[in-house]
Amino acid sequence: xxxxxxxxxxxxxxxxMMPMPVRVAPGTGRMAIDNGFQIVVSGVSDARLxxxxxxxMARLSRQTGIPFLGAKGSAALRVECAAKxxxxxxxxxxxxxxxDVTANGAVVKAATASGxxxxxxxxxxxxxxxxxxxxxxxxxxxxxxxxxxxxxxxxSGRHWMPVAVVKRNLDAMAAVKLNVFHWHLSEDQGFRVExxxxxxxxxxxxxxxxxxxxxxxxxxxxxxxxxIRVVPEFDIPGHTQSWLAAYPELATNPGTYQIGRTWGVYxxxxxxxxxxxxxxxxxxxxxxxxxxxxxYWHIGGDEVRDTQWRASxxxxxxxxxxxxxxxxxxQAYFNQRVQKLLQKHGKILIGWDxxxxxDLPQDIVxxxxxxxxxxxxxxxxxxxxxxxxxxxxxxxxxxxxHYAVDPLxxxxxxxxxxxxxxxxxxxxxxxxxxxxxxxxxxRIWPRAAAIAERYWxxxxxxxxxxxxxxxxxxxxxxxxxxxxxxxNYQPMLDRMAGGRPAEPLRVLADAVEGxxxxxRARAQRYTSLVPMNRLPDAARPESESVRAMELAAAKVAADxxxxxAESAMLRRAFAKWSENDARFVEMAGENPLLVExxxxxxxxxxxxxxxxxxxxxxxxxxxxxxxxxxxxxxxxRRLARPEVEVMVAGARPVKVLLEAAKK
Length: 663
Ligand code: ACM
Known about the structure:
Blueprint: H1 5-12, E1 23-32, E2 38-43, H2 47-64, E3 76-81, E4 97-102, E5 105-110, H3 113-126, E6 127-130, E7 133-143, E8 149-155, H4 163-175, E9 180-187, E10 190-191, H5 200-205, H6 213-224, E11 229-234, H7 241-246, H8 275-288, E12 296-298, H9 307-311, H10 313-321, H11 327-344, E13 348-352, E14 365-368, H12 372-380, E15 384-387, H13 399-403, H14 417-420, E16 423-430, H15 440-444, H16 447-456, H17 464-479, H18 489-496, H19 503-510, E17 513-514, H20 517-523, H21 535-538, H22 544-558, H23 564-588, H24 592-595, H25 598-620, H26 628-639, E18 646-647, H27 651-662
Parallel strand pairs: 2-3, 3-5, 8-9, 8-16, 9-11, 12-13, 13-14, 14-15, 15-16
Antiparallel strand pairs: 1-7, 4-5, 4-7, 6-7, 9-10, 17-18
Helix pairs in contact: 2-3, 4-6, 8-11, 19-23, 22-23, 22-27, 23-25, 25-27, 26-27
The structure holds acetamide.
């Protein structure tokens, strides 16, 4: 058996294998995909599997250009499930499958429909063009997830995410075997679900941007059909200004409230001392729990400001009466009441790590976002938990950083096996302060695919270069499932260019990377009304072309005279940067969207010139001229900080060459 992931993928995989299966044993020969190819569901009949097979056929047809006519004698993919399984995916269900591909055909065997669907997705990753036509290499695969809870959280509260955005992301989730869609549905800036019982919630709390109950049911069914559970989050008692805009009676402080327009943590908070609050929530849960079949119900519970509780005479009188020792105890009281209501409505409470408190029963689930420590603490105290700290996609950190975070790493590594078993998995989080429906996919994908591998694949699948090679391939493949993380890039640049050819802007954009929530918030005051239409919105979290240059620069640095191909590639790229500035300035003219980028373009040109000089000196083996090193050390330090809310990623390959040339 081949242990090296890179070799394995090269042996069997047409373009992308992610997440990496538990066991991959290449066989001999290949299965031809021709116009007689079909996917046959055998064994138990299952509507979800039949639908998954039909979708896979449609995807393959588009990908290969083959009209599948059902001609006789062709190889087929047979999917056999041992049992029907539940209609709705359940936490901890058997998702394992085996996949055997031979020249005569392929077979997926699974215990449940979810496993069957995972097998189909893996098969799709094997198919690609080869000599004689489309084909899948012979292979034997055994696969099962490492963690049962593999989630993606999407914030529909801060920026509205239309139904189509949710659906296309569910398709991409299924492609990389993520199985929990955590749907953040209410925020200070928006309450996003139609309520028939409390209609002011969506009427006054959403700017008209909300999901009807029919749409919620449609999305839940769409996810279920792809083996994905939907866990809704209605964040309480903080993060509730949109609720208070509709029902100010819920607030600790009397007054009138407006939907939030700015980012940050708000002070208004629900009144935990009023019985009416719990009566309202009881009615709310009665209505909303009927929309979501999942047994888990997320109450948020994060970042509760206690300013109003401490300043309120009636809350303080109530605190004394109930002998509550601090604000955390107030929140725990509130959570206990909420937990009992949810239990009555058949739901298990899950909340952000602030909900952790000894007064809460042990069946609740804790989602750690402030640090992995709280996850280990929860598990050691008998609670189940999931990890999100380290998986915040909105920070726009490189995939390798998320990939290095393991739900069972850090303090969790020191837990007993019994305690570790309480760690159910993890969730990547996409908060939406700085994304719109146009840009959100590019902040989720492809990095969420690397995180999905962390949740699915064995703990020892950690080779970062292999991950990047496969993630870049899977990134292209994911577009075929409908997400638009790559597709929206060029049109955004074209729009910024105001109808002029955008090529010089494209050169600049390819060499920079977007920055996360922190640097954007520090750069200027954003509100929900700001259109996210500038370079920092179009720029990708990670530049593929710069990564290729970094790899080439590392080769040149190690062996300047023996890396001719890499040197030539770098020279072309540096020359392009160098020559781009004059074209960019001409194109930018007085365009306000581009004028702000002129210094950036100058920096890129200077980097290109420096790169060319460094290549010359490295190839000659000569010492750098006096002044050059000091000057560029300083420049690279400056360029390590954000500029116009992007990072000049192009500085990285230059730094590699500079360090090599110093020696
Ligand atoms: C959170 O990021 N406030 C859960």
